[in-house]
Amino acid sequence: MNENQAVLAHLLKIGVNGFDSFWSIVDNSDEEAHFMHLLAYRVTTAFDLLNQLGGLGVVFDVSYVSTSKSDAASLLISKDEPIEIEIRAIPDSVIQFNRLGL
Q1: By three-state DSSP, how is residue 88 classified?
Q2: CB-based contact 97:15 (threshold 8 Å)
Q3: DSSP per-residue codes, 38-77
Q4: How far apart are CA 81 and CA 89, in angstroms?
Q5: Of 23, 48, 62, 96, which is most buried, counting CB atoms within 10 Å of its CB?
């Protein structure tokens, strides 16, 4: 995790409740070290994360892949089928929060 990712992770942990219960940060392989991945296990938590990211000017992609065969089940998310948020770019301004001593 680079410095900007570490600062962003810290800000998200402060700003969005339920880290490790309702959302998590995925450890990336070496091939994807320049990307940061978040998994949200509740729709409301996903919205909270997206709101925080958007407010900071972070560029991201959102995906959800359901393996359910039922149309109704595709509306539900779980630890097995979370919403994935892939952080594509973190603005340098995010690092300024680290300089404030947060």
Answers
A1: strand
A2: no
A3: EEESSHHHHHHHHHHHHHTT-EEEEEE----SSTTGGG--
A4: 24
A5: 23
Asked if the model's pLDDT at residue 19 lies above 60, the reply is yes
Burial readout 70-88 (b: 16 or more C-beta within 10 A, e: otherwise): eeeeeeebeeebbbbbebe
Residues 14-26, mean pLDDT to the nearest whole number: 93
Question: Cβ-count burial of 42 within 10 angstroms (0-12 exposed, 13-18 middle, 19+ buried)?
Answer: middle
Q: Mind listing the pLDDT tens digit for each residue in 56-77?
A: 999 999 998 666 666 555 555 6
**Quick one: tokens of 11?**
């800000």
Report how far apart, in Å, the C-alpha atoms of 47 and of each of 35, 95, 97 are.
20, 23, 22
What are the two backbone dihedrals, phi and then psi, of residue 83, each rounded to the nearest 5 degrees? Answer: -85, 130
Q: What is the pTM of this model?
A: 0.81
